[in-house]
Write a sequence for this structure.
């Protein structure tokens, strides 16, 4: 058989290589086209999920406006029912510098606006990222309405939910609700806005919970104006002008909030009735918690520490109950009450404050100031220019003045423990008061100090081991001092320029025997020694 020539062999090999290369190229191109199609589809899906549509301002008038929007645009779907609401999702809206980015008016269908971003609204305060007017059944979820004039505005709306949105760096309010009720504002971040973070005006029965409203420079983190019957709970409102404000907003619950490092007030309530303020933290503000003209309210279990003035301040109030609060290390007073009556202050810890632990000024008929721990202040409990108050069962230790009463009448001071102060209990220019059943011990100065105070009754107290006098009266007349036990004081009772005082039935010892019956034991010992000596002399004789 004849062998193929070299030229034929080379030609066959080249043909084979060329054919194989074409096959590989075709296959590669085919797979690349398929893969590119998948990538395109995946990218398209991803973009739609993350804000694929850029649109001009959205305006919806009435329920028919939703029908028109839904039938026109791919980025709106649903049918407006509770189970299948209209949804506008993943849209970026350019407001064009005029009006609201989204305006919805006169709508009561169910809808949700989710994961949308708005920018360049108009320059007026009501030109917002989204403006709802006479709307109900809406839900604004995880949107970003920031760097515009105002973030979210509701007018005459009810039964809406605003949750998990970011509303920051707006020129006016972050959120504003006007004449709206029964709305739920929860889990939003509303910070760095020019006025208030969240502002409610005549918008009652609202729930404001779990929001972060910090560093709103010229207003409050959360401000309720004429918006009672609301629940403000679990929010953080730090570094604002005021943390949380209720103005003419009664019957509300303010609980579990943190309001620290605000320029003026942590929590401020003015002209609100029947409010409950409980479990909040209001530290490092100028004033911790302030309540003015707000009767029938309860302030309990709050932390109000390290504030520049008072921890809790009550002004022109009545029928308030202040209990179980921790008000310590405030520069002025722990609890401050001015022009208050028919209120109770009980079981609070008011210690380590710069001036008073508890201070009552021009206050009256507050019979239950009881069970408080008031240690290491300048004045433990101070009563100034007040009458008909009752101090009972308080622990007042380590202060310069334990209980200090000035220009006050008809005060009952009973069953308190007043130890280890510089002076225990003091009455100055105070008349017709009753001091009874107290333990006043180990004070470095006087146990009870009375100056220019008349017609007082001091009875049944244990006054012991005070560094100076157990009781001293200076220019004080017609007082009754009876049935007290004085033990181990430097002086028992001392009068200076007094007249008409009745001092009777007191047990007055400057030192207490170290062992019960010690004096009798000494006497018997001496008698025994004398008897032995006499007996020895008789035997010798």
């Amino acid at each position: 058989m004849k062998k193929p020539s070299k030229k034929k062999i080379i030609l066959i090999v080249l043909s084979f290589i060329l054919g194989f290369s074409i096959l590989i190229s075709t296959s590669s191109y085919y797979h690349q086209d398929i893969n590119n199609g998948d990538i395109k589809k995946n990218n398209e899906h991803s973009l739609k999920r993350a804000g694929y549509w850029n649109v001009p301002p959205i305006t919806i008038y009435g329920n028919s406006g939703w029908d028109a929007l839904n039938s026109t645009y791919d980025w709106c779907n649903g049918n407006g029912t509770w189970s299948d609401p209209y949804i506008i999702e993943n849209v970026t809206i350019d407001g064009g510098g005029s009006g609201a980015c989204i305006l919805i008016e006169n709508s009561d269908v169910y809808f949700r606006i989710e994961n949308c971003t708005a920018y360049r609204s108009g320059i007026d305060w009501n030109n917002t990222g989204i403006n709802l007017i006479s709307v109900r059944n809406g839900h604004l979820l995880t949107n970003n309405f920031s760097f515009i004039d105002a973030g979210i505005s509701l007018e005459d709306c009810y039964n809406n939910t605003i949750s998990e949105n970011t509303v920051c760096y707006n020129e006016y309010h972050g959120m504003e609700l006007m004449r709206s009720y029964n709305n739920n504002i929860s889990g939003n971040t509303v910070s760095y806005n020019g006025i208030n973070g969240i502002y409610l005006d005549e918008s009652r029965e609202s729930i404001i919970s779990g929001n972060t409203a910090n560093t709103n420079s010229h207003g409050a983190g959360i401000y309720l104006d004429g918006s009672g019957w609301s629940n403000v709970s679990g929010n953080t409102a730090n570094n604002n002008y005021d943390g949380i404000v209720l103005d003419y907003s009664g019957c509300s619950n303010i609980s579990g909030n943190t309001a620290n490092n605000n320029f003026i007030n942590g929590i401020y309530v003015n002209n609100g009735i029947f409010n409950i303020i409980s479990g909040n933290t209001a530290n490092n503000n100028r004033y911790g918690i302030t309540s003015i003209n707000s009767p029938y309210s309860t302030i309990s279990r709050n932390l109000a520490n390290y504030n520049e003035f008072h921890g809790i301040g009550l002004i022109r109030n009545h029928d308030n109950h202040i209990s179980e609060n921790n008000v310590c290390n405030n520069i002025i007073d722990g609890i401050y009450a001015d022009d208050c009556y028919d209120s109770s202050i009980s079981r609070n810890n008011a210690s380590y404050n710069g001036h008073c632990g508890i201070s009552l000024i021009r206050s009256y008929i507050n019979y239950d100031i009881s069970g408080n721990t008031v240690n290491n202040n300048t004045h433990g409990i101070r009563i100034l220019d007040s009458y008909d108050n009752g101090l009972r069962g308080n622990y007042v230790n380590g202060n310069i003045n334990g209980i200090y009463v000035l220009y006050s009448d008809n005060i009952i001071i009973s069953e308190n423990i007043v130890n280890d102060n510089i002076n225990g209990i003091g009455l100055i220019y105070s008349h017709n008061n009753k001091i009874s059943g107290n333990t006043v011990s180990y004070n470095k100065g006087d146990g009870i100090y009375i100056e220019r105070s008349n017609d007082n009754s001091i009875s049944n107290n244990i006054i012991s081991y005070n560094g100076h006098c157990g009781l001293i009266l200076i220019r004080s007349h017609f007082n009754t001092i009876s049935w007290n036990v004085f033990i181990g004081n430097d002086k028992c009772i001392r009068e200076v320029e007094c007249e008409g005082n009745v001092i009777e039935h007191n047990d007055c010892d400057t030192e207490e025997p170290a062992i019960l019956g010690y004096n009798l034991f000494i006497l018997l010992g001496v008698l025994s020694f004398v008897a032995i000596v006499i007996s020895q002399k008789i035997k010798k004789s």
User: Anything to note?
Assistant: The two ends are 175 Å apart (CA to CA). Residues 9-14, 16-51, 512-523 have pLDDT under 50 and may be disordered.
